[in-house]
# Entry
Amino acid sequence: MVTEFNLTDEVKEGINSARQSFKAVCDSMDMNYIKVDGYGKNYIKKYKLSPDSFMQLAIQVMAISCKGAINNFYVLTVAAGY
# Structure
């Protein structure tokens, strides 16, 4: 079953405008990465780390190596033990 939408010209223009804005943001981004082998789920399990905390540390190390400083980051608070 295919759902069909009847869009007004105003809605179509809004969609096209959003598409162009999204493309401009994507085109303005610069992305670098480094492949690091040996750090997978087995490493995290071996050292009894939380996957969330491991990723937070990885993001902070990346920020220091790329920008020379740590920016503000969202940190997940785990309340399961309370």
